[in-house]
Amino acid sequence: MREINQNSRSLYDRIGQRKGIVILLKHFYADVRQHGLIGPVFNRRIKDWPEHLAKIGEFWARITGGPSTYLGQMPAKHLSLELDIRHFAAWLELWDFNCRCYLNPSEAKEMSRLAHEIGARLSNLVFQQAFLERRGHKPGATF
């Protein structure tokens, strides 16, 4: 019997596929909802938590190499939330903590790396949009 090289398996498989994502997200968003800074942002916007968790689960399935039906426009959803660097830092801190709690160390590092890369791109878009709006540009305008 041939041994499977861990590096040849997708991150999705190594975190436990859909079940691993569900467990991680359940605990992570429980922490998010109670957080003093980011909890109110999420609790104002999310009206159907099971639906949100299912959609975010599809997002994480896709970016970890698993099957997914995610078709959302994640960056666009964040442009109107009036986020600042503290919001991104708090989200990432909770994400890193939950990854360390619910995943094996190497997979936790990979999931954290992915989240930090996404966070950096997303925060750049959010801050760029805010800067342009302060300069009088309308959202969605071409430059």
Describe the structure.
- The structure is a single chain.
- The protein has 143 residues and is mainly alpha-helical.
- The chain has one domain (13-134): Orthogonal Bundle (Globin-like), CATH 1.10.490.
- 69% of the residues lie in helices and 0% in strands.
- Helix 2 (17-34) crosses helix 4 (49-63) and helix 2 packs across helix 6.
- The termini are far apart.
- Residues 1-5 have low confidence and may be disordered.
Tally of DSSP helical segments: 7
The CATH topology, please?
Globin-like
Percent range of helical residues: 55-70%
Radius of gyration: 17 Å
Give the full name of the CATH homologous superfamily. Globins
> Roughly what is the average pLDDT, rounded to an integer?
84
What's this, in brief?
By secondary structure, the chain is mostly helical.
Keywords, separated by commas or semicolons:
7 helices; single chain; disordered N terminus; 0% strand; Globin-like; mainly alpha
